[in-house]
Amino acid sequence: MNTEMLQLYRDYNVAMAADDTVALDHLLGPDFTLTHMTGVVQPRAEWLAELEHGTMHYFSSVEDHVTMQATATGWQVTGQNRVVASIHGGGKYEWPLNTVMAVARIDGRWQILSAVVTTY
Predict the structure, then answer these.
(1) CA 10/CA 26 separation, integer angstroms
(2) 19: left (phi > 0), else alpha (psi -120 to 50), else beta?
(3) Which of 62, 84, 93, 104 has CA atoms 20 to 30 A from the CA of 18?
(4) Count of CB atoms situated within 10 Å of the CB of 97
(5) What is the pLDDT of residues 66-97, one digit of tens each?
């Protein structure tokens, strides 16, 4: 297991659960997209703005399992976390989320290019 990729995955989830847009800004590539469990694809700036404004609010993210695989351009990191969040003013709910991340080295550091989220 690549400890650097595992730490990147964990840093992302900690920052997300804390609504820490400064940390996420550092972790996400410039063209990052988040595909939500609904299938909606959200650009980086839009997702970070929703976190900043509280439209999306994450309370916690508890890791169940993480795997990773080297690819031709970097890494694919897949993890399952139980995430508690309030989305667009809805109630506070827990979802078992499977996140598949594409990670590549950009400007000398590993950055997350995309995250595709489904339930498990």
Answers:
(1) 14
(2) left
(3) 104
(4) 21
(5) 999 999 999 999 999 999 999 887 889 999 99
Tokens of 116: 């595709």
**What sign does the dihedral 22-27-32-35 (CA atoms) show?**
negative
| 68 close to 75: Cβ distance less than 8 angstroms | yes
- Could you list the beta-strand ranges (E) of 48-106: 56-70, 75-87, 92-106
Only one residue has tokens 């650009």, namely 43
Instruction: Kindly tell me the sign of the dihedral angle through the C-alpha atoms of 60, 41, 114, 64.
Output: positive
